[in-house]
Amino acid sequence: MKTRDFDYELPPELIAQRPLPQRDASRLLVLHRADGRIEHRQFTDIQDYLRPGDVLVVNNSRVIPARLYGRKTSGGQVEILLLSPLDNTRWQALVGGKRLHEGTEIHITGHDGKETTFTATVTAVLAGPRREIQFSQPIQDYLDELGHTPLPPYIHEPLADVERYQTIFAHPPGSAAAPTAGLHFTSDLLLAMRNLGIILETVTLHVGLDTFQPVAAEYVVDHTIHSEWTSLTPETARRINEAKLAGGRIMAVGTTAVRTLETAACRSAGITGSLQTISQRDAGRGAAGETSNLCPWRPVMAFEGATDLFIYPGYRFRAVDMMITNFHLPQSSLLMLVSAFAGQGLVRQAYATAVAERYRFFSFGDAMCIV
Q1: Is the pTM of this model over 0.90?
Q2: How many CA atoms lie within 13 A of 239 on its CB side?
Q3: What is the mean pLDDT of the chain?
Q4: Strand ranges in 206-297 using DSSP code E only, listed in sequence order
Q5: DSSP 8-state assignment for residue 163
Q6: Domain end: 121, 146, 171, which one?
């Protein structure tokens, strides 16, 4: 399976540059896996595809102002995108600038462009633009003063209200990018769904490096996905399992919620260690002529830590019954996950339909529901 199998043509004008004035006013493409049927709805219609006792699982991670600017001692400009903390003062980051070798010192500048008391030293050179950075003092509590919201590179317009790049349920800080499928929800919509008997549960996955790193390998299996920190509490796991055993279905909001739930189900199934190659193993263990991408349901197990689960066609889903997602970049690991869930052919057809119907794509774009 080649990475180019997940390419598609997208007119640049369909890349949404700003959020809609009303979060839940976006369009919703509904893809039915059973028969390939496609419906065109509004996002508020999402409740029509759920019934009492179903569980809506969202990622509650909050985007941090993770983009910092600074100058090298020699005067060169540097941009730092914080990805994940290693301890109180060390971070893994993407850096932009010239000659950022081990030992290079960077003077952090504030919103006014003036140097602050913070310095950052490159302590390790990793693959590509990744570096380990050591700050002169803990910087987490000062990011609101020094940092900038890291909008994706395909968004070229400034964001008037940075809270529009946060979900309404965002709480624990830690993401370098928003879990964008959740951006469509409003408090009124969630209350309406609760009144219908739909259960809302939250998990946490701090979105990190892979959001900013395209799949460069020629063959999908050769891509190494980077781990992201995630958490599913014992109480949440218990309520999800009880709802499932009572006949409810699990709808994951976004690829991050899918990865969290599927990681928890893999652990429950006794699969230990790295999950990087689970899709390949699943494909190899399928019965001859088998076309289903579903395993028998597995309970989700509470856990906290990193996940390197890489989901692409061949993976057999253990926990998730339905999902909501935005329209993703060509040749991205996110598109591969969606293709694993709905099938490459159906997703290709759905994306072609979305382009023809002028849906809005990517982070501030419209949504797709796969049932």
Answers
A1: yes
A2: 15
A3: 93
A4: 228-232, 250-253
A5: G
A6: 146
